[in-house]
Amino acid sequence: MGTRIRLTAAALAVGLGLAACTSPAEPAAPGPAAPSASTSATASGAPRRVVGSVIRFTAGDYAVDVTVGADSPAVRDLLSMLPIRLPFEDLSNREKIAYLPRKLQTDGSPGGDPEDGDLIYFVPWGNLGFYYDAEGIGYSDATIPVGRYNATAEQLEHLESGPVTVTLVG
Q: What segment(s) does the record annotate as region Disordered (predicted)?
């Protein structure tokens, strides 16, 4: 009889332990959200660390790496779209541009004053742009900075050779 009581007690303990590990039948009352740092993950799949991430644009054997320099809703939305393939073209001998498949979420994204070596998102047209001759281009709320790259105008011409694969590599 003592063995039977010990087995029943053991089974009861296991059952209570399992019950403690399950979710409650009703959702918990909402509380304040945990503070989020600029490096937290988003529901859309953007990486935990945004600033310092590397986006690679590959056309054939040629690649241009962009180091993300801003954490904004637009940049996070762009990162959540990757990988994608885009055709690039030249615009006014100032930048290489490509239109994204959809416009990015930009609410709360600061504008910028582009410089040579900047990758930007241009809100009205929904395009990315690699600036290589930004002389005379001033600040605009519609020009959202994404990051910096290290390539010449001649090197950027490789992006026009066919569809460019855009991936997050680091």
A: 24-43
Other beta carbons within 10 angstroms of residue 100's beta carbon come to 17
- Quickly list DSSP for 85-121: EE--EEETTTEEEEE-SSPPP-TT---B---TTEEEE
Residue of 41, 27, 60, 50 lying closest to 109 (CA atoms): 50
- In angstroms, the CA 123 to CA 66 distance is 19
- Which CATH number fits the domain 54-168, given the four candidates 2.60.120.320, 2.60.120.810, 2.40.100.20, 3.10.20.310? 2.40.100.20
Element (H, E) at 17: helix 2-21
Q: What is the mean pLDDT of each run of 10 residues along the chain (170 residues)?
A: 43 40 32 31 60 98 97 98 98 98 98 98 99 98 99 97 96
Give the dihedral sign, CA 87/159/163/115.
Answer: negative
